[in-house]
Amino acid sequence: MSTDHLIELRRDLHRHPEPAWREFYTTCRIVEEIERIGVTDLYVGREAIDVEERLAVPDSAELVEWFNRAREAGAKEDVLERLDGGYTGCVAVVERGEGPTIGLRVDIDGLLREESRDDEHAPAAEGFRSENEGAMHACGHDAHATIGLGVLEAITESDFQGTLKVFFQPGEEMIAGGKAMAKSEHLADVEYLLALHIGLDHPTGEVVAGIDDFLAVSHLHAEFSGQPAHAGAEPDAGENAVQAMAAAIQNLYSIPRHHDGATRVNAGQVGGGTASNIVPESAYIEGEVRGQTTELMEYMRERADRVLEGAAAMHGCEVTVETRGEAPSARSDQQLVDVVSSVARTRPGVERVLERDALGGSEDATYLMQEVQKNGGYASYVGIGTDHPGGHHTATFDVDEESIAIGIDVISRSITEIAATRPE
Amino acid sequence: MSTDHLIELRRDLHRHPEPAWREFYTTCRIVEEIERIGVTDLYVGREAIDVEERLAVPDSAELVEWFNRAREAGAKEDVLERLDGGYTGCVAVVERGEGPTIGLRVDIDGLLREESRDDEHAPAAEGFRSENEGAMHACGHDAHATIGLGVLEAITESDFQGTLKVFFQPGEEMIAGGKAMAKSEHLADVEYLLALHIGLDHPTGEVVAGIDDFLAVSHLHAEFSGQPAHAGAEPDAGENAVQAMAAAIQNLYSIPRHHDGATRVNAGQVGGGTASNIVPESAYIEGEVRGQTTELMEYMRERADRVLEGAAAMHGCEVTVETRGEAPSARSDQQLVDVVSSVARTRPGVERVLERDALGGSEDATYLMQEVQKNGGYASYVGIGTDHPGGHHTATFDVDEESIAIGIDVISRSITEIAATRPE
Amino acid sequence: MSTDHLIELRRDLHRHPEPAWREFYTTCRIVEEIERIGVTDLYVGREAIDVEERLAVPDSAELVEWFNRAREAGAKEDVLERLDGGYTGCVAVVERGEGPTIGLRVDIDGLLREESRDDEHAPAAEGFRSENEGAMHACGHDAHATIGLGVLEAITESDFQGTLKVFFQPGEEMIAGGKAMAKSEHLADVEYLLALHIGLDHPTGEVVAGIDDFLAVSHLHAEFSGQPAHAGAEPDAGENAVQAMAAAIQNLYSIPRHHDGATRVNAGQVGGGTASNIVPESAYIEGEVRGQTTELMEYMRERADRVLEGAAAMHGCEVTVETRGEAPSARSDQQLVDVVSSVARTRPGVERVLERDALGGSEDATYLMQEVQKNGGYASYVGIGTDHPGGHHTATFDVDEESIAIGIDVISRSITEIAATRPE
Amino acid sequence: MSTDHLIELRRDLHRHPEPAWREFYTTCRIVEEIERIGVTDLYVGREAIDVEERLAVPDSAELVEWFNRAREAGAKEDVLERLDGGYTGCVAVVERGEGPTIGLRVDIDGLLREESRDDEHAPAAEGFRSENEGAMHACGHDAHATIGLGVLEAITESDFQGTLKVFFQPGEEMIAGGKAMAKSEHLADVEYLLALHIGLDHPTGEVVAGIDDFLAVSHLHAEFSGQPAHAGAEPDAGENAVQAMAAAIQNLYSIPRHHDGATRVNAGQVGGGTASNIVPESAYIEGEVRGQTTELMEYMRERADRVLEGAAAMHGCEVTVETRGEAPSARSDQQLVDVVSSVARTRPGVERVLERDALGGSEDATYLMQEVQKNGGYASYVGIGTDHPGGHHTATFDVDEESIAIGIDVISRSITEIAATRPE
């Protein structure tokens, strides 16, 4: 793919950031490219995932709104129709003679946050700022999707022998899509899996061959419901959902540390009540717990559930707790770390190769990695450095577009090498 | 005014509920009626209030939105222009020979809550449900404004001797308009003041000559600001505004009871944070404190400020606390209670007269009552019963339109009688 | 009784303050006086109360300790033996011809607090400071017992016609003895009941004929039990009873105010844990709730129980809640207020008579008052002013001994007058 | 030392457990043994420590009580006098020709907890249960002191060449004595330091050559002071120290986890208030924070101080926070781990040698280790396995006395070997 085309593609995706299960424009655009490349073994929407395993699917009204927005933005109508109901994402397959089945997973979703309008923010200055107000590609998944397509094209043009499957995964930001893709039939025969992330505080020219220390995570949504009452005239008649919520927040953060390793808890978005003079009848906590291992995450989750129940009971409220996203922990296999690091060292533009680094956050690529490893295969999560002015998830995040080509090159060469050497 | 006209007027107001300082359509409609009645001594917008004393004025964008909505709904253009900037409300004056100056205060604002679409809810069934989605006349101020106009007309047609001033007050629901109207020049010479409220769980045919036990109230808006951080990767780098908010909520409700009388506190609407995986950098509490006396309210307010400050400090956050509305306590004077109750007993449609009853809530008519009483005058807050299917502030609140005429009759006859007898 | 004898008696009691069900020395000393006066119709210990209704009885070790202390202080051995097991208090009966049965209730217990050693504190300066270290007559019950004996003697020497029963009640400070005495057979036929309290911020020479506004109260003792663990090595293995306790405290104080009237809540004494490095396995709250009415107290108590349960559940702990004392609300009858106030106005030393005043605290005389009122009788709680340097329950509380004689005079004359006039 | 003598000595110490700076009997008994062994270069009390650096020194009354108790138990009078004022502990020095200066640190204090009376608890069954009721050697420091003396004797009888200093350190349990001993002049020239602990869930026959992962710790004592008030009559007049304490507890446990490593927090012992009907005027938290590194401990400590201040401010209280004990983190040097593990493998009774293990708790031996390491020397913390029926710090903790001889043998041989080989 020409550099111009890569940049134009990435910027088009950047202009249309879409959150989990709403990647309508994005999927259409990806499919369009796949067709341009000439790959016909293609699975779109429901065909790409286990439809039972989608997490955090928004309600119909929300889906319709984004569906229409994609249509208005010019999404390809025939593809769009196959995504109706929030079945986004796709899998492209290239089969080229004898050889192992290798997977590449890239995530394609955006974030719900506003993008900077600052002149120093390149997308704003150069006219490819988000057109979906309130949403933004603030984590580089626009670049990920572009790299996925670039690798697909590079492989079709190479002497690669084997099968390559590129997984364009929806809903990573909400830890909502990994499980559905991991449980699809397409992953079942994958012997080697690479996933990748751009940036992560590594500059352009740096490559990390295997990222580890993914925290297992569980997103939870707790809804407290009580009884409203006039706060002046009859405060005793209420059952105060905001009091329950506040008690829960205080006691969620105070779940004991665990001696086995790192844990996390956050009540990241909360709210409740209707007016200053009404005893609040409802409140919610959108939160998460994490653990260095899946077990530690589960310890946190059990304690969190207990706190939420007790807090509701204290104030005569009901609470329902829903899991909105989940991902286990995972580890990159040394077998692939070796291949990627030795390939990377030879590639132009790569100035420094780190064998391993820690993420310290969460990712649902771990679902796919675990699945492949469980089946006896190997997986690695590769970091492609990029100079990014703002931090991930901030309003001024952007990528150095130079790094996209580096990523395509390192990943596609690693795939060819894996196919050739079949490391064990 | 004919019953048909009364009902048509009330329903027109009902279709256009507008919250504090956004009563553009409402004020225009009221002015139109006043002009129809033939009262020319009329003060509109800035002329009707002390412009420095408005509380809880919304931002320009919000004002513009409601202003335009009123224009689209057909508000009289020349009046509308005089209200620009959120200067709503008006005062109509009738001067008829020698006699005391008597005030009548009616409030005209709606509430921000959705109105029921249920078939059993008359406004929905009969086609005068709110056209301002998300807003509703759920407390009967549409009837109050109608009664105010009805009284104005009745007085012009009666043998009343003296001066009548009808205060059409904005922003009562938010305790935001009473002070501005109390501090206007128009109230300075008022010797007798009546205010009124419909319903309050009294059925059609019941009149309360003097309502008491207004709780003094202060609305406060607290904004906590901290520092965001990734909740998985670097939770220690954050200063958690939601933790500060939760600590504040817990400790606001636990401000000690006061031995001098009733107090109240409510964190009625709260929220914070941006996403489940971000340490929340901001949070807010929209709350209120009340007291049986103004002093008790102030005790609560001081303690609340202390709690808010301490909670922010505990979590390394800043907090700013703004007063969004305030009203003192007040008491109806026996002199007027006597007049109203004896008049009411003689009026058709009135089946039961109570001398006094307690409100148990708050009202900023108290600002006007206190002002008049401070100047040596007398005030009473009169209850006009109405059968209301849903409670005040609920989605199915409605008034029995029969009670509007009763209200006009009782109030206008009481005014005539006060003018005739000048009670002391 | 001579003034010297009164003072000597009161000071002897003052030197031996004893808390609930430990009034061994005190009861013996009272019995000694009753015998000196010559009253032989006397019920001691188990005979004086309903033994099933004692609340907050201390454990055997504690009882034995105070029993031995009383013996060492010279308590009359034959009486002492009748009190074994914490059955303290007595009832003295004088039957004198035809006439109504009138009760006088005085409380006799001390408080667990240290007495001041300051030279300005008369008991310290004049050598009658508490000899029971850590206990003190800091509320004037030494004077109450003395007045009770003085009245008994005065009545035996008067022309009183009827039956007088003086109830020397244990355990008022802990709200622990009133119920047991109210349920004894001795109260069943009482037609008129007076109770009294000295001081209450009224100076010597002032008399309050009927005190009201007793808050109903319930003392509760909550024990949280969890699981200990090493706080450094395995914090996750603990179930933290102190966290449960802290959550409970925060949410107890935040039980909503009630629109029907005053409520109170206090976690007056709390504690938990064993060492800074051990996750606390136990904790307790010694607290109370009150209400302006018995119903309001019960509302608070139900909410408190709910909070305690929920807080324990949040932290994986168990909680047991025990009622350690309880008293209803009550009101003085106008019939007796009239008699006492008219008698008081005629007595030497009385300079000012108030018909009524509010207590604002709690008292278990209310159990006896309610019992008498339920049986169709009348009751009043009389205040006898005394100059007291320190506030009630403080280390420097003391009474003006002049007021003891005034109290005896006013109460005994009121009893004679009630007997003579049988008010209805 | 004969086995009989060792056991008799250990049991004598076990019968007289003494907490920090109260090790009067213990120090006297140790000095007696040192004199018996014939070591005359001996530093007792003030001579053994930097007197300015003692932490958590109890008040005089407490010191006098334990001093007298030691005297009554038969402590050697001339030594005892040198310890007056809580200057306990000692340092014994053996100088034997040319060779390096090697330190051995053993801690000698007991714990404040009751010892089991169960028949299955050997000290109870065999008559050497604690004679200091409420105190217990529940962590094996009786065995540590015995091993220290055994090593001293073994070295004097060996061909050791160099200088051995045995540090008998007070107050480890409270993290109160390590700093004072580390800052004494005696440690300044120590080139190699061993410290030891018995048990730690390692059975008899197991040796750990170097223990790591000491959590840095800071003990804090927070005192809240407010204003008392009658909880029924005037709750608003109080400033509630228990409310402040509860808010602090809730928010201490919720100090954010740190991404750099493990942290801990505990409010291990708390209390407040005087009576159920008094608004509590005082309360305290005896707590601790820990960190995997000294920096992490300091992060926790700063946040804790902030929480304590904010919580006090919220409730109008003052808080004073005192550091009652502190210890840094430390790491055993491989140089000594190598020596100890190779020596241990050759000793009779040793069945299994672990190179390293993690403590996961805190220890103030780290002060001495850090001091030696800072001066360019090496240190290791050695684990001597022992079958212990109950866990450390529980009422049934006991050691297998067989392990004492093993400990003496392994440690003294290691010291000889270190002197001979001077590892670098």
From TrEMBL, chains A, B, C, D:
Q: Where does Mn(2+) 1 bind?
A: 173
MF terms per GO, please?
dipeptidase activity; metal ion binding; para-aminobenzoyl-glutamate hydrolase activity
Record carries keyword Hydrolase: yes
Output a single Gene Ontology CC term carried by this record: cytoplasm
Domain of life, per UniProt, equals Archaea
GO BP terms: folic acid catabolic process
- State how the cofactor is bound: The Mn(2+) ion enhances activity.
Task: Identify the keywords attached in UniProt to this record, alphabetized.
Answer: Hydrolase, Manganese, Metal-binding
Q: Where is the signal peptide?
A: none
Question: Which residues make up the binding site for Mn(2+) 2?
Answer: 139, 141, 197, 393
Q: Which cofactor does it need?
A: Mn(2+)
Residue intervals of the Peptidase M20 dimerisation domain: 220-306
Q: Can the keyword Heme be found in this entry's annotation?
A: no
Where is coiled-coil annotated? none
PANTHER family, alphabetized: PEPTIDASE M20, PEPTIDASE M20 DIMERISATION DOMAIN-CONTAINING PROTEIN
The name of this protein is: Indole-3-acetyl-L-aspartic acid hydrolase
Q: Identify the species of origin.
A: Halalkalicoccus jeotgali (strain DSM 18796 / CECT 7217 / JCM 14584 / KCTC 4019 / B3)
